[in-house]
Specification:
Shape: globular
Largest sheet: 7 strands, mixed
CATH topology of the largest domain: Carbamate kinase
CATH architecture of the largest domain: 3-Layer(aba) Sandwich
CATH class of the largest domain: Alpha Beta
Number of helices: 15
Strand order of the largest sheet: 3-2-1-6-8-9-7
Number of domains: 2
Radius of gyration: 25 Å
Helix content: 25-40%
Bound molecules: aspartic acid
Number of strands: 15
């Protein structure tokens, strides 16, 4: 089986992290295709090389001396390379790059973070280096040309058998370097997995996968062993993010599972993300809970609305006119709500309400702001009846007022709106009832 291993910045933040990476790669002969991010933070007060390169660009643009900054970047690479006994002339290569920095495009400059890191890692692992500029090809419109990229990558496999590939960048048709979004090393890994028809995409990071709740709210939350792509989208959208979202699509389409693993605790199982998880053993009712504060809901009520064709469309088109994207539309028989991000409408809400009054002629329009949404995600919820009732009951018993209820169409998530002030408490109550005491609740 072909396994793609992507190591994030924290996995290569120091020479000792490189040693861990080597142990991981050497522990499994199927780990032959390695994608790496730029050297990252050693601790929370440290800097990522990518951030420093972005800063160096800004210095160049504004004609501020960048020598000190470039020295700091060079020192990080040289320190690691010296410690690992790398023969490749890192300092010399860096000096050449730095001397010409103003001649390069900003994207080229930033991409050097992964380029240097991948060179060092390739030599350290004893594997060939393949430049993303030779294999990761972008269309004119900025999306990746999967066909041409697959051809180039397969050629590289033929020629080299195994390799280290820098993440985060590729090349456009006219030959210039193009970056993915921030965190885009995950995307490179996903594209490589897709193009080589990998059996598994291992994503090595500094956490042991997805947690079932935010550890800042729940102490030591249960980690999620298996999750479906749909469930992950729901949780990531509401703030529980481990993986660059765009990284999901290439592997999802090809039905390649992603395994999130912890470089610092390689024996932890991590989280497996795949299309379906039906035959799994750990059939938890709830996979995870996530949420965000500061939404706003506009509730519209009108008698016999259910017979009025087009009323929802007309209301939504008012929001569209103001360029506001809609988060949810909870509906009743003669009422419905439109939930949006509070910050998106802070300047336009009065105008929007006035337009709704004029164009929709509702009996009543009310606005609820400072609303937090808590999403309870679980592929198994649809199989067991009464889950939503239990969630609402638990919140009610805790004295938490539910302002809004909505459910995703595939029934994999239930979303409750509560006051911002009740946000953390709502998550605690749901976690307690359904995750901590899951065994008890099933007896
Ligand atoms: N180095 C890039 C960043 O910091 C890409 C990545 O880490 O995946 O965003």
């Amino acid at each position: 089986m072909i396994k793609i291993c992507k190591f994030g910045g924290s996995s290569v933040a120091s020479a000792s992290q490189f040693r861990r990476v080597k142990e991981i790669v050497e522990a499994d002969p199927e780990r032959r295709f390695i994608v790496v991010s730029a050297v990252g933070k050693r601790d929370s007060s440290d800097n990522k090389i990518t951030d420093l390169l972005l800063l160096a660009n800004a210095h160049v643009t504004y004609h501020v001396d960048s020598a000190q900054l470039l020295d700091a970047i060079k020192a990080r690479f040289v320190e690691i390379a010296d410690d690992l006994g790398i023969a490749w002339p890192v300092a010399e290569k860096f000096d050449t790059f730095a001397a010409d920095i103003s001649k390069h495009s900003p994207e080229y400059v930033v991409s050097r973070g992964e380029w240097f890191t991948a060179h060092i890692l390739a030599e350290y692992l004893g594997l060939p280096f393949v430049d993303a500029a030779d294999v990761m090809i972008f269309h004119h419109n900025g999306t990746v040309d999967l066909e041409r990229t697959a051809v180039r990558l397969k050629e590289a496999v033929q020629r080299k058998g195994a390799f280290v590939l820098p993440g985060f960048y590729g090349v456009t048709v006219d030959g210039s370097i193009k970056l993915f979004q921030r965190g885009g090393g995950d995307i490179t890994g996903a594209i490589l997995a897709r193009c080589l028809d990998a059996g598994l995409y291992e994503n090595w990071t500094d956490v042991s996968g997805f947690l079932s709740a935010d550890p800042r709210i729940i102490e030591n939350p249960r980690s999620i062993r298996r999750i479906t792509f749909d469930e992950m989208r729901e949780l990531s959208y509401m703030g529980a993010s481990v993986l660059q979202e765009e990284a999901i699509f290439p592997v999802r389409e090809a039905n390649i599972p992603i395994q999130i693993k912890n470089t610092n605790r390689p024996d932890d199982v991590g989280t497996i993300i795949r299309e379906t998880a039906d035959s799994d053993v750990d059939e938890h009712l709830i996979t995870g809970i996530a949420g965000k504060r500061d939404f706003l809901a506009v509730h519209i009520q009108k008698a016999h609305m259910s017979n009025e064709v087009g009323i929802v469309r007309r209301t939504l088109s008012i929001f569209e006119r103001y360029g506001i994207s809609i988060e949810h539309i909870p509906t009743g028989v003669d009422s419905f709500g439109v939930v949006v991000n509070g910050s998106d409408v802070k300047d336009s809400i009065y105008q929007i309400i006035s337009d709704i009054r004029k164009e929709i002629a509702p009996d009543n329009v009310t606005v609820v702001d400072k609303l937090a949404l808590v999403t309870v995600v679980g592929r198994n919820m649809s199989k067991r009846s009464g889950t939503s009732g239990k969630i609402f009951g638990a919140l009610g018993e805790a004295g938490i007022n539910i302002r809004l209820i909505t459910q995703s169409s595939q029934e994999i998530s239930i979303i409750v709106g509560v006051d911002n002030a009740d946000f953390e408490r709502a998550i605690e109550v749901i976690y307690d009832r359904f995750v901590s005491n899951e065994m008890v609740s099933h007896l």
